[in-house]
Design brief:
- This protein has a single domain, classed as Rossmann fold (3-Layer(aba) Sandwich).
- The protein has 14 helices and nine strands.
- The chain has helices at about 5-10, 20-45, 65-70, 85-90, 95-105, 135-150, 170-180, 210-215, 230-245, 275-285, 285-295, 300-325, 335-340, 345-350, and strands at about 80, 120, 125-130, 155-160, 185-190, 195, 200, 220-225, 250-255.
- The strands form two sheets. A seven-stranded mixed sheet has the order 2-3-1-4-5-9-8, sandwiched between helices. The chain has a two-stranded antiparallel sheet with strand order 6-7.
- The termini are far apart.
- About 40% of the residues are buried.
Length: about 375
Amino acid sequence: MEHKSIVKKFKYRGINLKSINKNLCIRLYSFMQRLRICEEELEREYHPKDQMRCPVHFCTGQEAVPASLNILMNKNDYLFSHHRSHGYYLSKNAPMKKLFAEIYGKETGANSGIAGSQDISYPEKKFFSGAILAGAASIAVGTAISLSKNKNNNNVVFTGFGESATDQGIFWESLNYASLKKLPIIFICENNNYATYSPQHERQSGYSIAKKAKAFGVNSSSVFGNDIAEVFTTLKNAISNVRKKKGPYLLEAFTYRYSGHVGPFSDDYQDYRTKNEIDFWKKIDPIKILKNELYKKKYINEHSDKQIVNKIHKEIRESFNFAKKSDFPKFKSWKDLNFSRKKSLADKILKNIKQKSFDKTQKVILPKGY
C-alpha cells in the first residue's frame, strides 16, 4: 500500500465490525464526530472575526487514529504529538475548553495562552505536542528510556507524526535506538502523503515506512487509516505486545487531510492535488464509512445520532464562550517566559570569575582519549 497508487488501484471492501462490540463502536463514532465537528467549528470561526491568536493545523479526515488511542491508552501512558495536535490532545481526555482558550491566546488555556495550537501540552494528562519536525519521536524515545528503567512499569509511550517526519535523520536514529534497547514505545505514522505541498513519492525512495522500519528490527504494519476497525484492532494487539516488554512497534496508517496544510483557508489553489483525489478520499471518509455501518447494524439511528451531535455542539459552544470571556495573560517581560529568575543550585555552588582575572595564556590540557 502506498499513496501514489491508492487513488488509481485501491478498492475499499467495507468496514468489518466483528471484533468491536456495539458500545465500543458508538464510543469510537462519538469521538470521531466530536473531533470532526470541533475542527470544523474552529475553522468556521477563525475568519472573519480574527480573534484566534495562532496558526492552526486541522486534522479533518484523520480521526481514526486519535479515536482508537482515546480508548486504548492508559492514563499513565505518555503521548507525544506533532504540530497537527488537536486529535491527540482530545484523545488524552484533555479539556476541550482549554484547547479553545489556548488557541485564543487566553490565560485559561492549556498553556496559559502562550503555546498555541502547534505546541500545546497538558502535562496533567501526560500529553505534549511540538512544532519541530520529528521532535515528537525523539523526545518520546527519551521518555521511553526513563520508563524502561523501572522493570515493574508496563506503561507505554506513544508518538504520533506525519510521514514527513520520516524525512528527518533523527526519526531513524530514534527508531534504531528504540529497537536496540527494546523500549516501550509505539510509533504512529499518519501518512497523509503531503509535506505541506510535496507528495511522498517526490521526497522518498524505496519501500514504505513500515517496511523500512523492519530493517531496524521494529515490528511494523501498514493499514488503511480510515478504517477505524482495522486501526483499532491493529493498535490493540500492538499495545498488548509492547506492554509485555516485546519491544517497539510502528504503525503506518494511510489517511488524508481535507483541510489545507495550515488553516483555516484551503490551499488547493497551489494545484498540488486534484479535485478527483480529494473527492476519492471523501468517498471513503472515516466517519462516513463507520456511520453507514452503524446505521446498517441498527446500533444508532437518526434520533440517537442527533443526540450525539447535539451534545457535541453544546460542548463546543461552551468552549467558545469560555475562551472568549477569559482574560489575556499578564506578564511583565518576555524574559519571564523564557527562563526562570530563581537562583539555581549551580549559582550557589559555582564561583563567579571576573573576566579581567582570567589568564588567556594558560595551557589547554585535553583529557586522554580526545
